[in-house]
Structures are given as structure tokens and as C-alpha cells.
Amino acid sequence: MTFGACIAGLGMDVPVRIVTNKDLEAVVDTTDDWIVTRTGIHERRIVADGQSTGDLAVKACEDALRSAGITIADIEMIVLSTCTGDTNMLPATATFVQTALGASHIPAFDISAACSGFVYGLDIAHQFIATGRCRRILVVGAEAMSRVVDWTDRASCVLFGDGAGAAVLERCPPGQGILSTKIASNGAGACLLQIPAGGSREPLTAETVGTDRQFLHMDGKAVYSFAVEIMGEAAMAALDAAGISPSEIDLLVPHQANIRIIKSAADRMGIPLEKVFINVDRYGNTSAASIPIALTEAVRTGRLKEGDLVVTVGFGAGLTWGANVMRWGQVNP
Ligand code: ACO
Q1: Distance CA 32, CA 191 (A)
Q2: Ligand 1 lined by 130 (C-beta under 6 Å)
Q3: Mean pLDDT on 291-301
Q4: Ligand 1 centroid vs 35 CA: distance in angstroms?
Q5: Pairing status of strand 136-144 against strand 162-172
Q6: What's the pLDDT tens digit per position in 180-222?
Q7: What is the mean pLDDT of residues 320-330?
Q8: What pTM was estimated for this model as a whole?
Q9: Strand pairing of 320-327 and 309-316?
Q10: What's the topology of domain 179-327?
Q11: Which of 167, 204, 265, 319 stands 20 to 30 A from 230 (CA)?
Q12: C-alpha–C-alpha distance, residues 114 and 145, integer Å
């Protein structure tokens, strides 16, 4: 039997520390004007000493459970997307989150799809719900990007921020909630955005650390060109699969990487900017957390209401990309 899956609750958490562009002028050779003009970012949140991706994820999950009006006992799986896990490779950050939430003996695992991670996570969770294996799943996107950026590289460190967002995905009648999803990747672009050292190919040594290969390396221009093409394309593919035209969309919730990429995607789809949710100015690029944080704020500010048609679309390292089309159900703020 096939079931539908809809988001029944949303939550988020961001660190309290705000780092403005002016603050960054003291860290690297940059200006507020350059960052705002090229990216649309004004400020971002940065974790405190000792605070981890998992800590943010736990708070976002608690918020999502509250918003869904359920407890952790009602959850049958935790799918967490991150590229900045609490430890390097194992165990999964989802297992720390599971324990902190008071759950045990349910599957809790991480997925790695960088900034497309939440879109991937929703699709994975959807399959478990559609087949009847699970009734309610926590889908989380959480990152502490400030831990992996090179704070001497002005071309990348100004772009990112930390945060977490979570959704309770719940069984619903077919035809409600998620109407279609498209996910894809192209490993030919893997070298464009990566953390070269720290894995099995290039374990951490004094030499790799000395050359900063444990930090994020990015070909910004190439990623930009890819992003402006793929955002519109991915969203259109998901809309086609659902048999919906862009003019019917009530809200587009894109990955918040750069205002120019967001505007170009909306433009290519013929969607006016009033129908696009934007918070990149306040959080920067929070990778896998950006879409669930944006969805949470969209609901809490009344931009996303019951019955609305919403499209989420993301791109990221891999290269990966994907989009979900959803008919929004009742979600308590
Ligand atoms: N402040 C001042 N000057 C800067 C800065 C900075 N922070 N960063 C770069 N510059 C300089 C460059 O050195 C260059 O100077 P030069 O001409 O003397 O060499 C000049 O500004 C122009 O640099 P460009 O790279 O051409 O700037 P561009 O307009 O391409 O913008 C940016 C750069 C913002 C990085 C853009 O390419 C971009 O947004 N790319 C996409 C990045 C992205 O979204 N990555 C995340 C992917 S998601 C994931 O999976 C994590």
C-alpha cells in the first residue's frame, strides 16, 4: 500500500552569536559592500566554543516535535544531513541527536549530500513512509560550517553560517504533502567543492594540516555557473513530474547560498521575487540547514499557509541537486 507524506511540524535553531560583514572586515581583506553586492549576505550565526552541529540539531528537533504536537516516542527514524558532523566520519551525528532526544532502538543515520541534503533527506524519509515502514520520521539538516571554512580565505569564509532545521514527516493520504521529488548528482564536479583531507584518501597528517587541506576548498565561479543553471532546471523537473506549472506555485524556498543565484533561478522559472522566500541576508549559507530553516521561518511569518503549493530546491557539493514539490498541510507554528 502506498501512503503520502507531509510535513507535520518544523523547527530550527541558530547560534546566538551574530557575525556581521563589518566584523569580518577585521578577519580578512573584505568589505561589507563587496559581500552584500556579490552575495546578499549581511550577517551569519557562528557556534560558540564547544557547541556542535549535533547540539543545534537537537534543539531544532525539539522545536519541530513541539510544533507537530508529538514527542520523540512517536518518531520511528532520524535522517540527518550534514557535511560538518560532530566527529570525523563515525559515528553518525544522528546517533548523538537520538540519544540527546531520549530515543533508542530506532534507526538514526546521516546522509551526505551537502547543501542538497534536506531535499535528499525528505525523499529518503518519504520512501519509508510511502511503503508503510514508518509513520513519522525526523528529517534534519544541521551544520557548523564555521568549523570547516578557512578563515584566511576571503572568497569562501564570508559565505557560510551555522544552524539547524528539522521537519517531522508524517504519513498522510496519497496526493497530499510531497507531490514529487527529483534528486540527482554528478561526481564529475566533485573537485569543485571539497574538504580534501581528513578522509581515507588523504588522512590528516601534520603536512595536510600545514597546507590547510582540512578546510573547505571551492571554485566559486564554477559552482556559481552550475548553480544558476541547475536551480531552475531541478525545480522545473520536479514541477513537471507533479504536472504543475510554475505560475501555480505560492512559494519558492530555494537553498540560501547567494541572492544572485536565487534571483536568477526565480527569473528562469518566471516566478516573481515576492513568491520567493529569502533569509540569506541574516544567516548566509547554512548548507543542509538552509531549506528547513527557511521553511520554518516561512510558516512562522505567515508566508506559507495550509493549501499552498511550495517548491524547495537546492544544490551543493558532489555536485548534488534536487527539488521537492509539496501541497502544504496544517503545520502549527
Ligand atoms: N572580499 C573582497 N574581495 C573578494 C572577496 C571578498 N570576500 N572574495 C573574493 N574577492 C575578490 C577576488 O579575489 C577577485 O579579485 P581579483 O579580480 O583581483 O582576482 C574579485 O573579488 C572577484 O572575485 P570573483 O570570484 O570573480 O567574484 P564573483 O562575482 O564570482 O563572486 C562568489 C564570488 C560570491 C564566491 C560567487 O562566485 C559565488 O557565490 N559562487 C557560488 C558559491 C556557493 O554558492 N558555494 C556553496 C555551494 S553549496 C555547498 O555545497 C556548501
Answers
A1: 29
A2: no
A3: 98
A4: 9
A5: antiparallel
A6: 999 999 999 999 999 999 999 999 998 888 889 999 999 999 9
A7: 94
A8: 0.96
A9: antiparallel
A10: Peroxisomal Thiolase; Chain A, domain 1 (3.40.47)
A11: 167
A12: 11
